[in-house]
Amino acid sequence: MSKLVIENVSRVFPAVRGGAPTRALEPTSLSVADNDFVTILGPSGCGKSTLLRMIAGLDTPTTGTLMLDGKPITGPGADRGMVFQSYTLFPWLTVSENISFGLRERGMAPRECAAIAGAWLEKVGLTSFANHFPKQLSGGMQQRTAIARALANDPKILLLDEPFGALDNQTRGLMQELLLGIWERERKTVIFVTHDIEEAAFLASRVVVMTARPGRIKADIAVDLPHPRLYTLKTSPEFAVLKARLTEEIRAEAVLAAEAH
Amino acid sequence: MKPLAPISSSARITLGIAFFVLFVAAWSYATFGGFVSKTFLANPLTMLNDGWDLLTKQGFLTDIGMTIWRVIGGFVLAAVFAVPIGILMGAYKPVEAFLEPFVSFARYLPASAFIPLLILWAGIGELQKLLVIFIGSVFQLILMVAVTVGSVRRDLVEASLTLGARDAGVLKRVLVPAAAPGIAEILRLVLGWAWTYVIVAELIGSSSGIGHMIIDSQALLATGQIIFGIIVIGVIGLISDYAFKALNRALFPWSIL
Fold first, then answer.
1. Is pLDDT at A1 greater than 60 in this prediction?
2. pLDDT digits (tens, 9 = 90+) for B167-211
3. Which among B120, B177, B178, B222 counts the fewest CB atoms within 10 Å?
4. Whether A165 contacts chain B with CB within 8 A
C-alpha cells in the first residue's frame, strides 16, 4: 500500500523584477510505500527541497496533487514531522521542552509530555542534556534533538531536509547510524533529502535521483543491502558498486548544474 | 587595541568611572579657573551645595517622586497599548497594512507640540503630563515591537507548523517568546525617551516635578540647582537602565547564551 502519492506535482516560482519565472520542479510523480526509507539525491538547486517542503505543506504546488493516506495535503500538520537543515530548535525552550513542543500543542498533560520526552532523550543519547538550552549544544546534538522532537510527535511520515549538511564528516557518520537505528526499530516512513551520494546510498531502501534545474526524477534505484547496517558497510564491495552507479547518474547532472550557475 | 577583543570587568568599570572623573575635572577647570562666568555655569561645589539645600529645605524629594510617578505612569500606559498592538501588527500582515501608515505618520508628531492642545483638553493636572509621555512613547513602541515580532526567524515558525501548531499556537508559543527579549530591550530604550518628554511637560504649566524646579531656578539664575536637577535625572536614568538590564537577563537567560 502506498502511503504518500505525488502526482504530476510541479513548482514554478513567479518572476522577480521582470525576469523569467523559475521552474524549480518539472511535473513529478512518486509513490512512497509504508515504512519505506527513501532518499532523494540531487545537485543543489534541483528542486528536491522544494518537493520536500510541498510534502510538508510549507509550499504549495503549481500543478498536481499530493496525497497522504488518501487525503490531499493542503497545509502543514503534525502528521508530517520535519527536520530542517538549519538549526530550528526553539532557543527559549530546554532540550526536553523542545521535544515535547508538539505534544503540548496537542494539549497533552505536562507529566505525560515529560515521560515521552524522557524516552526520546534516551533514544538519541541526550538524557544528561535534558535541561540545557539549544545554544549550549553542539550542532550534532541539536540535530539529534530536532529528530527526537519530530518523532516524539509520532508523525505518519518523517521528512528530513539535508539534516546533517552542516555537520563534520565524523559526526555525520554517527548521525546516519543513529537515524538508521531508530528507523530499524520504529519503522517509520522516511523521506530524506541530500546531495551526498554515500549518505543517500547508506540510509536508503530506495534512492530517487533528480536532475539539475528544472528538477525531475532521473532514476529510481532500490537498495537491497541488508539491515542492520553498520558503518563497515560503507567499505564493502557491493556498497562500492552502488555508489559508483549513483555517481554516474548524478555526475552528468552536477556538470549541467555547474554550467547553469 | 585589537578590534572586538574583550576586556576584563575591572578594566571596564575603571574606564567607565574614568570618563566621569574627566568630565567633572574639565567642568571644575572651566568654573574654578574663572573661564566661565558664575552667572551662567555654577561650579561643582556650588552645585552640590544647592542640591543639598534643595533636598533638605525645599522638598525636592517630593518633586523627584512626582516626576518618577509621571514617567512610570505614562510609560506603563503606553506599553499596555503598544505591546499588544505591536505584536498583532508584527504577526498579522492585514493589521500591519491597516495601522502601519498611520502609526508611522503619528510617530513624527512631536509630543511637545501637543502640550498646548493637551492643556486645553485635560487641564494642567496629572492626566496632561501622562498624556504627553503616552503620545511621545506609544507610536515608537508600536512600530519597534511590530518590527521585532515580524522579524522572528521564519524557519522557527515553519518548524512549529510541522509540529502541529495552529495560528494561535504560533503566536503564543513561537512569535511572542522569540520576540520577548527584543521587546524588553525596546521598553528599556523608550523608557529613556519618556524621561525627556516628562521634563518638557513639566516645564510648561506645572507646579511640581524636576522640570518645574528647573524652570523656577532659571528665574532665580540658580544654575547650580538646574545642573543638580539634570544630574538627578541622569542618575535615575542610569539606575533604571541597569535595573531593566538585570531584569531582562533574569527573565531571558537563554537570549544571552
1. no
2. 899 999 999 999 999 999 999 999 988 988 888 888 887 888 999
3. B120
4. no
Chain A contact present for B172, CB below 8 A: no
**CB crowding A2-39: b at 16 or more within 10 Å, else e:** ebbbbeebbbeeeeeeeeeebbbbbebebebeeebbbb
Per residue, the 3-state secondary structure of B94-141, as one string, reads HHHHHHHHHHHHHHCCCHHHHHHHHHHHHCCCHHHHHHHHHHHHHHHH
Do residue B178 and residue A92 have CB atoms under 8 angstroms apart? yes
Cα–Cα distance, B96 to A155 (Å, whole number): 35
Annotation: CATH topology of A2-79+155-260: Rossmann fold (3.40.50)
Domain boundaries, chain B: 63-252
- The verdict on a CB contact (< 8 Å) between B173 and A86 is no
Residue A261: what pLDDT? 58
> CATH: 1.20.1290.10, 3.30.497.10, 1.10.3720.10, 1.10.630.10. Which one for B63-252?
1.10.3720.10
Q: Which of A57, A133, A153 sits opposite B163 (nearest CB)?
A: A153
A15 pLDDT more than 90: no
Q: Is residue A45's pLDDT more than 80?
A: no
Q: What's the grid cell of residue B106? A: 503619528
Question: Out of A80, A106, A133, whose CB is closest to B254?
Answer: A133
- Across the interface, of A76, A91, A135, the residue whose CB is closest to B162 is A76
Give B177's contacts in chain A (Cβ within 8 Å): 90, 92
CB contact under 8 A, A92 and B166: no
d(CA B48, CA B42): 10
Q: Are A183 and A190 in contact (CB under 8 A)?
A: yes
Grid coordinates of A10: 510541479
Interface touch A84/B174, C-beta < 8 Å: no
Which of B154, B162, B175 to probe the A interface (max A CBs under 10 A)?
B162
> CB-CB: which of A105, A135, A146 is closest to B165?
A105
Helices (H) and strands (E) in chain A, counts: 8, 10
Residues of each domain in chain A carrying CATH 3.40.50.300: 2-79+155-260
Q: Are residues A131 and A118 in contact, defined by beta-carbon separation less than 8 angstroms?
A: no
**Min CA distance, B177 vs chain A (Å)?**
7
Q: What is the pTM of this model?
A: 0.86
Question: What percentage of chain B carries pLDDT values higher than 90?
Answer: 65
Q: Is B12's Cβ below 8 Å from some Cβ in A?
A: no
- Identify the three-state secondary structure at position A107: coil
Task: For residue range A192-230, list pLDDT tens digits in order.
Answer: 999 888 899 899 999 999 887 788 888 888 888 888 888
The identity of residue A24, as a single letter, is: A
Residues 7-66 of A with CB under 8 A from B: 56-58
